[in-house]
Amino acid sequence: MADMRDPLIPVAEARNRILEMLPRTDTETVSLREAAGRVLAQDVVSLRTQPPSDLSAMDGYAVRARDIETIGASLRVIGEAPAGRGFAGQVGAGQCVRIFTGAPVPQGADSIMLQEDADRTGESVSFRETAKPGQHIRRAGIDFAIGDTGPRAGTRLRAADIALAAAMNHARLEVHRRPVIAYFSTGDELVYPGETPGPDQIISSNNDGLGALIEAHGGIALDLGIAPDDADIIRAVAMKARDADMLVTLGGASVGDHDLVRPALEADGLVIDFWRIAMRPGKPLMFGRYGDMPMLGLPGNPVSALVCALLFLVPALDHLQGTAPRLPLSLARLGRALKANDQREDYLRARLDHVAGELPVATPFARQDSSMLSSLSGADCLVIRPPHAPEAKAGEMVECLLLRA
Question: Helix, strand, or coil here: 105?
């Protein structure tokens, strides 16, 4: 169990300790229409060859290349091959078949002549170009063959992945179940959006912001609302999360007289792994186990809560769903000078300006107060400053956590 005197632990260590405690969610089979954004639990193996036979890549005429070695050669049209219905006969000397894109290449033909290079009169057609064997033919299996592996387990499915699975003749896919993340805020000062706050109250933004983040990263958001500063009520609300994959609390994670989450839940079996992170914003962050359920305690300040959620909850969501956690990191040039850093890892809200042929320029905002949501909403990235980083001049290279696609 963590002690109140525990030192600040590094961000990377905290993230690793969280991931080590998390299981994968179980799996379920869903239709292709339900699979977008889900994480595959099993490789997709092709059930067919694509294309199943040699197909025409163009509208035109299926010919034997050796019959059109000179411009002006004339052939007799013996049939037609539309897409989905092949020509049953065989192309012999001096013969050709009118063919359309996607139709099987008839037996005996080894080349497709474009219709715009042909002049047809009745059943006779002459060509203004010569033919080469194999031109404008899609060979059988050039895309994939029976037994080939398509999207692999651990892939978060995009439209192209789903289209490939469909082409491989899969109507349903085995995916990891979406993890259920239950969460609630604490504090007598909080009221719901749309309500009229009292003289000493504020609008709660954390629940809606966190719910949007959870849903955007494949989870199911279970909003348990706002709990007042009352230990019994906090325990009662936390009990509603007993069937979730993780419990997240917002606020009350520090050590003040009104920070009741830790003592309230410890009395009900919460075992703390760690509770202080060497980062800014967001030092008071708890992680432990509440019964059989992992529990993450985020700070109450809105910016701190969302930044910590990006760094710890989003990787946890990836891990729960069976995919490798990956933070969207990028290099940039500093747009203004920064002072030397202390022992905490900084995440500075910044604007990102793109420069043709060069690294983008990341300019941290002058004000970084952890209560200012407007600057987080307006930020393109977070400039990462390692602990004890020396002062940095404008133009130096820095690492950024991207906030926008």
Answer: coil
List helix spans (H) across 7-121: 11-21
- Phi then psi for residue 314, to 5 deg, are -60, -45
Contact 87, 108 (CB under 8 A): no
Domains of the chain plus CATH, in order, are 11-26+178-320 (3.40.980.10), 28-50+154-176 (3.90.105.10), 55-138 (2.170.190.11), 329-402 (2.40.340.10)
Q: What is the pLDDT of residues 261-272, one digit of tens each?
A: 999 999 999 999
Q: Hey, CA dihedral for 23, 266, 219, 206, is it positive or negative? A: negative
pLDDT digits (tens, 9 = 90+) for 179-226: 999 999 999 999 999 999 999 899 999 999 999 999 999 999 999 999
- CA contacts within 13 A on the Cβ side of 193: 5
Do 227 and 186 meet the contact criterion of CB atoms below 8 Å apart?
A: yes
Report the predicted TM-score, pTM, of the whole model to 2 decimal places.
0.88
Give dist(CA 259, CA 390) in Å, integer: 35
**Cβ-contact 299, 282 below 8 angstroms:** yes
Other Cβ atoms less than 10 A from the Cβ of 114: the count is 15
3-state SS class at 168? coil
State both tokens at 252.
């009350």
Phi, psi dihedrals of residue 360, rounded to the nearest 5° = -65, 165
